[in-house]
Amino acid sequence: MQVHSYSYPEGMQFATLEERKEFYSSEFNIERAMSWLQHPSKPCFAVIIGRHTKIYPLKYKDDAEDTIIIDVYSGPHEISEQILEFLPESVYYDRDVYLDDKVVGQELAFDLDPENVKCPIHGELAEKMKKHQGLSFCTLELNMVKEETLRLYEHLKKGFSKLKIVYSGRGFHIHVFDLDAYDLSVEARRKIALDVKNRGFPIDEWVTTGEMRLIRLPFSLNGLVSRIATPLEEGELESFYPFSDARCIPKFLRMKTTSL
User: Fold this and answer.
1) Is 5 exposed, middle or buried (0-12, 13-18, 19+ CB in 10 A)?
2) Is there a contact between 32 and 61 (Cβ–Cβ < 8 Å)?
3) By residue range, what is the domain housing residue 197?
4) What is the CATH number of the domain that holds 137?
5) The pTM is what?
6) How far apart are alpha carbons 192 and 187 in whole angstroms?
7) What are the residues facing 111 on neighbouring strands?
8) H/E element holding 256?
9) Is residue 28 scored above 50 in pLDDT?
């Protein structure tokens, strides 16, 4: 098993198992997250325990890199219980819409991550991948991808009316909740992704085309950087600063800062 040492801006770091437990037992609210989703059907969730951080409960060593689906639950409390059981580095939800176990639609989304911009200091993603630093990013790249998110949001407003922005802990997601967008065909999604990519936006095409149906759950902890996935209003994005905004900094980090 190869352990990568990713490089992040100062103050961003892997969350320990103890910190994950503290967050999901006292700070995370699954009902708040589910309310934000406005999912047309009963949503499915997923966790990755320790694929990138290599931090995991020993009893789940063999499952640490797998994507574990949470689709059997009677209520929100059972979802929280399963998350606390796994103490994952990441929690996701499934954008697919199901009817009688068949996929009948999918939420359209755009994923912009800082490693996908061309950094004047660290270069392009391909260069980072050669150094096994594909998930690394710097403050400059984070600011660059924030500007790209603002530009993309303005572009998408021309065709969609119900858009939501989420700071993912690393980059940003734009979710489209227009009802018509759920019915887009695979080909239509590919055309949208290609058009956006050709306009220079650093998106993860797999997310927009629907090939990657999972996306980070708002209000969950991004255990790679110890930041909370935080929904933002359009007017908040330009001034948003994840190094000081209390909404995205978990209590276990705020307490450390206070005690210094």
Assistant:
1) exposed
2) no
3) 17-259
4) 3.90.920.10
5) 0.93
6) 9
7) 173
8) helix 251-259
9) yes
